[in-house]
Amino acid sequence: MRGWGRNESNYRNPCLTMHQPWASLLVHGIKRIEGRSWPAPIRGRLWIHAAGKVPEPDTIKAMEDFYREIYAVNGVTHIEFPEHYPVSRLLGCVEIAGCVTCEELVSWEAIPEGVRLEGQTAFVWLCEQPQKLIVPFEMRGYQGVYNLERRIYESAVRGLTSISAPLPVKFPLPNPQDRFSLKPGSLASYSSGSSSSKMEKSPALQAAIDGARAAATQFTKNNSSEPTTLTIEGSGKPVSSRAK
Where in the sequence does UniProt note compositional bias of the Low complexity kind (predicted)? Predict the structure, then answer.
């Protein structure tokens, strides 16, 4: 298993390839949690690249319905979803504030209830400060977290623009002096508290959650011959190095 240790020396301008529609939802600040079966190996800026698979309309609808419902939990009734979900493109970046377990996330009362509903995988990467590229540009994606080529980074960093997210979240660090303090196990004291699994869910919210899970399940079946951790946020598995 990949560790969450402090050694980031191998990462310079780290990037993660994700499938659509999850990639654009993250860069547009709608998605605030990236679910993975492995802990986040970095803190700070993470570039987001969209894989080459064109998303099915039903998958896009299921995920947009899911986010409408979980934002409604916090009183947000209007969300501007992306007009397009481009593929094989570098889209923008987010800041990784930390990584905790799903059990810790769902019991963490310091963050909005809707954010806690996003957690569906073993580890959840906590994403803040989304920025998108004014003009996404084509590039190849690779497995796991990898480094952007310097020439791509130098072009991309000049083309970023801030996002007005529907409900921006600032994840509080247990130790503000240590940016790695928000890590698996750091919120263990919250795990015995309330959780999203115990939240009273409306029929519409439960239907949206079930629909998102079904969409993720179908995506996994259609796009992978290997078992992977099911996640509302995406396939939960790094894209193949052959993906574009």
Answer: 184-205
Global confidence as pTM: 0.87
Measure the CA–CA gap between 172 and 98, rounded to whole angstroms. Answer: 9
Question: Which residues, including other chains, have CB under 8 Å from residue 221's CB and lie 6 or more apart?
Answer: none
Q: How confident is the model over 48-72, as pLDDT tens digits?
A: 999 999 999 999 999 999 999 999 9
Q: Is 90 left (phi over 0), alpha (psi -120 to 50) or beta?
A: beta
pLDDT in tens, 89-112: 999 999 999 999 999 999 999 999
Query: Angle at Cα 194 formed by Cα 193 and Cα 198, nearest 5°?
Result: 145
Tokens 């239907």 correspond to what residue? 207
Cα distance between residue 88 and residue 91, in whole Å: 9
Q: Is 158 helix (H, G, I), strand (E, B) or coil?
A: helix
How far is residue 33 CA from its own chain's centroid? Answer: 4
